[in-house]
Amino acid sequence: FGVWAHHMFTTGMPTISTSYFSAASMAVSVPAGIQVFAWIATIAAGKMRFTTAGLFVIGAIITFVMGGLTGVMVAMVPFDWQAHDSYFIVAHLHYVLIGGMVFPFFAAIYYWLPMSSTRPLSERLGKWAFWLMFTGMHVTFLPMHLSGLMAMPRRVFTYLPGRGLELPNLISSIGTAITVVGVLIWIIDMARNFRPFGDRDAGNIHDAPGLEWLPTGLYSVRSVPVVKSLYPLWEQKGLARDVEAGRYILPNAPTGGRETLVTSTLNAEPQYLQRMPMPSAWHVWAAVFTAGLFLLLTVQAYVASAVSGVLAVWYVMRWCWMLDRPRIAETVDVGGGIRLPTYVSGPSSHGWWAMVITLIVAGMIALLAGFSYVFLWSRNPQAWIAPPPLTDLALTLVGNVLGVGLAWLSCKVLALDRPRSPVIATLLMIL
């Protein structure tokens, strides 16, 4: 929220606004630089192997750093006035986007895909894909810095002859073709990976030390291990075998469903047993209709959008109702001689903290909206309606206090745990 206006330096913003957002945008380079040096230190201190995944990681760092350097340039208002809405911005955007997201995505695919497909991707095809994508990306976007400084506007597919733009645009087109070939090779590799025949037992092909490479079966690990090392699969011999044999925590699903441990933040001491959602389609339909709510608005299908929104709310409520299952027991044996409660409330519950954080975020959004409104009104009183009088604000405050009080009262009613408590609490929340 602190740098968004660096996209709007040419719109006639007040000087104080451009100064703040320019400084904030340049200040972002400090944590970004720390992040890059942390990546480099991780590679230097580890045992880097130049597999396809490793190549994509190195390519991502190089590309991201180049995009970050041009980001500092466009954060300076005088320079941005010259480069705004030109191919220079297109180049900067794609260097940051591809270096920060696309190349890491491909690295993750080549590293972790065997966990889900149980078959590794081809290293030979993968390296071809990387070098073609890496080369094509730089051949495409590096010349755009030059064409942007030569006044090539973005979002325009043509240009006048004799401006010197033919060569850099031709080079960019060639780079695009190279990138497309690399992506096609990756698609072929993915198609080979998911073919319905051949060996499908990849295992821990990287000899990685992390717990994600434990055998997981259909849902999760057979038992939750006790970890005593940063590299458990390297230093705790036989860990995978013992986990699969159920010799650790939660070997037998004491509640009869999906479950996991909730531990303390600092010491990882078990606090309670969290019952996880069972297989369901309610949340899938909720996601579908939520997407429909917003997508239908884009085509001005307001009635269909409203219907989709109502259905989304219904499916969310139905899913939440299903999650509120009765307790099987107050405490259960989770293995290792440990008994834990199956339900907690208050600050010990992660749900409590989720609600607190949600309320804090909602409050921040409300404050930002109010500040933005007052700021816009103060800058242009003719175009914006004046803020409401203090009496209306006082009534709004009273209403908010009453709402909080009713919510608190509904919680107290639920705590009574009587037959009609849920109905009364629901009515109070509606009020």
Describe what this molecule looks like in 3D.
The chain is mainly α and 431 residues long. It folds into four domains: 190 residues, Cytochrome c oxidase-like, subunit I domain (Cytochrome C Oxidase, Chain A); 96 residues, no CATH class; 32 residues; 44 residues. It has a two-stranded antiparallel ribbon with strand order 1-2. A hairpin with a 6-residue loop joins strand 1 and strand 2. Helix 2 packs antiparallel against helix 3, helix 3 packs parallel to helix 6 and helix 13 runs antiparallel to helix 14. The protein is globular, with a radius of gyration of 28 Å. The mean pLDDT is 85.
List keywords for this structure.
single chain, 431 residues, mainly alpha, Cytochrome C Oxidase, Chain A, 4 domains, two-stranded antiparallel sheet, 4 strands, 61% helix
Rg, please?
A: 28 Å
Strand count, sense and barrel status of the largest sheet are:
2 strands, antiparallel
Number of helices: 14
Class by alpha and beta content: mainly alpha
What is the highest CATH level, the class of the largest domain? Mainly Alpha
Q: Which regions contain 5 or more consecutive residues with pLDDT less than 50?
A: none
Average pLDDT, rounded to a whole number, is 85
Instruction: Supply the CATH architecture of the largest domain.
Output: Up-down Bundle
Spatial order of the strands forming the largest sheet:
1-2
Give the helix proportion (percent range).
55-70%
Instruction: Say how many strands there are.
Output: 4
Q: What is the CATH topology of the largest domain? A: Cytochrome C Oxidase, Chain A
